[in-house]
Write a structure and sequence with these properties.
Length: 260
């Protein structure tokens, strides 16, 4: 007999990965575990998809980049939608097993930090959760040194004939993305002269908005669940998460809105 569904998807291994730790069992701990495991699978897919999007941008494959952003925006909508499911868990239910997390925290999601670095939200402090010499730390250090999605977008603009300023062409890729007036002027001209490029940039803005929506919904979900308590792992909880809000990936795309 050839390959079957369960073998192809490794169902036995997959369904053995949910191990609640509460004793006596707390019903909602299974929900909590599955939601976060699914998030990690989506993060893995996003890293995979953005690798292709960056290659499309550098190769001036406009329609490949458009298709890629359509997909990751759909994934982002799903990430937001999963919070609706998680919010069916009451604060009382979460408190019933929260201590079983011990020092575990979402801050320790190396894939999400990779995702942020790939998008251009880089800061070395994000690696402090991961021990020196660990595989996760090594991966993040590599991502920190690699050009980001925004750098790939700049390469795409150069391929479209835009003369990028030196501070953009030679910038330190380990630093966060910064807005640039010359890039904004080029973006506006492309919107006016190249509607097909405008479609791509609107999809980029749409994804950016979706990520900000997810961050906001995540903050409110945490606030609703634990209030002003400290987060697991010793983080500042809601107050820490609020600092991540309203930081766009593509500041130049937002900066031109008033000029249309």
């Amino acid at each position: 007999m050839g390959m079957n569904y369960a073998d192809y998807l490794k169902m036995d291994q997959l369904l053995d990965l949910q191990e609640p730790r509460s004793d006596p069992p707390e019903h909602d701990e299974t929900l909590f575990i599955i939601i976060h495991q699914v998030y990690e699978l989506w993060f893995k897919l996003m890293l995979h998809e953005f690798g292709r999007i960056c290659a499309c941008m550098r190769g001036r494959d406009l329609f490949g980049a458009i298709a890629g952003f359509q997909r990751v925006r759909a994934v982002m909508k799903t990430l937001v939608g999963q919070l609706d499911i998680l919010e069916t868990m009451t604060p009382m239910s979460f408190s019933g097993f929260r201590d079983r997390l011990e020092s575990a925290s979402g801050l320790q999601s190396s894939q999400f930090r990779e995702f942020e670095f790939m998008l251009g939200h880089k800061r070395s402090s994000a690696m402090e959760q991961f021990p020196e010499g660990s595989p996760q730390r090594a991966t993040l250090e590599r991502r920190l040194r690699e050009p980001s999605l925004v750098d790939a977008f700049h390469a795409f603009l150069a391929g479209e004939g835009v003369t990028l300023p030196e501070e953009v062409r030679t910038r330190d890729v380990t630093l966060p993305t910064a807005a640039n007036q010359v890039v904004q002027d080029a973006v506006l001209e492309l919107y006016l002269q190249r509607p097909e490029v405008g479609i791509l940039m609107e999809l980029m803005t749409d994804f950016d908005e979706g990520l900000q929506e997810w961050r906001y919904r995540h903050v409110k979900m945490v606030e609703r669940t634990i209030g002003n308590k400290r987060g697991t792992g010793g983080s500042l909880g809601v107050e820490f998460l609020k600092k991540t809000l309203f930081k766009p990936i593509f500041p130049d795309l937002w900066a031109v809105r008033h000029r249309f």
